[in-house]
Amino acid sequence: MPSSFRRPPRFAVGCAVAALTAALSGPAWADPAPDYDALVARLSDTPLIAEAGALLDAAEARVRQAHVRPNPVLGLEAENAFGSGPFEGYKNAETSLNLSTDLELWGRRGARVDVARAEAATASRRSTLVAADAAGRLALYYAEAEAADRRFGLATEALTLTLADTRAALALVEEGREPLLRGIEGQTEAAAARARLDEAQAERDAAFARLTGFAMLVQPVTSIGDTLLDRMPTPVAAETSAAPAVLVAEAEREAADRRIAVERIRARPDVRASIGVRRFEAEDATALTFGLSVPLPLFDRNRGNVEAAQADFRAADARLRGVRQEAEADRVAARARLGSAASRVSATDTGVSSAEEAYRLSRIGAEAGRISQLELRSSRAALIAARNAALDARLARVRAEIDLARLDGRAPFGAAQ
């Protein structure tokens, strides 16, 4: 076979080797991410937790404000002054100084306080839900960054194996033991492996950026020091408390019920009392004044607001029933996925061991000429697929643990929030 037909594959493989060497000899990653447990402990610095905490502070401040009584009204009136005839000037004027206040009858203040407390309880439970969601998102971003880093390593190893097999195929082509087609196929596989490596590197950079942004880290993450993919999920008891979403729905229902009482009380007359002093300039005398004022409920009896509050309560009650059913179904599904993922991890690890042994034997057989290049490529593809399947299984286990932890209102993998 003329040498001019053998050089292109060998030259292409040499370029691929040079490209791989350049990729692996770049700047070293010097900023590993903090441990997952340390990042969970710092979740209070994230905007999500800070926002939930501020909303809770606002709700608690409204509770304190609800206890405050309304301010009294100080009024000053002058009558029969600066007129004509006997009322010329101010000598026959009558001046009144009075103080009036809302009596808050019918339990207005207590109902207002009850609503504020119910809303504060809702904000508190919602902050717990936000904390669980934030911990779940952190665990997911951490696991995805670790998985992307491992995929990059697998893609690098896959390219290394592909180049090694291609070099071996070219040697057989040189000896005339394999057709030229095998060298061309090796060149194509090396190019595809290089493209997959570039894609894996881009995915890794994106995953590192997501983790850096969510965790509010000063230095960009460039490597993963801790591991979540290999960490075993936290054992959970058979009987667990209600999901945070259910607790939030219960608090919203309670607040809606309290608002009905407020609107019903508002339908009753708002009685105001007043007391004051009146000065009679003509007689040079003073006298006390006092009175009550009550609006006549001829037109506005607050029926619309009462009906609206009742409708809001029915909506909150229906939402609570739906959330309870969904939470129970999601918890059963999450436990099933977690058990399935654990079995899948064990199965894929066995598959990786078998694929590694099969590929090792295939390499030996191919070098001895007892196994064809097609069989070697098939065993290499099976090995790469097995390793990626094992990584997918671990990532699925992490996601199942995240879903279950969110339903239990805790941080995944037993981290302390």
Automatic annotation (TrEMBL):
Stored InterPro entries: MdtP/NodT-like, OMP_efflux
Residues in coiled coil: none
Domain of life per record: Bacteria
Segments traversing the membrane: none
Annotated keywords: Signal
Gene3D superfamilies given in the database record: Outer membrane efflux proteins (OEP)
Signal peptide interval: 1-30
Pfam families in alphabetical order: OEP (PF02321)
SUPFAM superfamilies on file: Outer membrane efflux proteins (OEP) (SSF56954)
Sequence similarity: Belongs to the outer membrane factor (OMF) (TC 1.B.17) family.
Protein name: TolC family protein
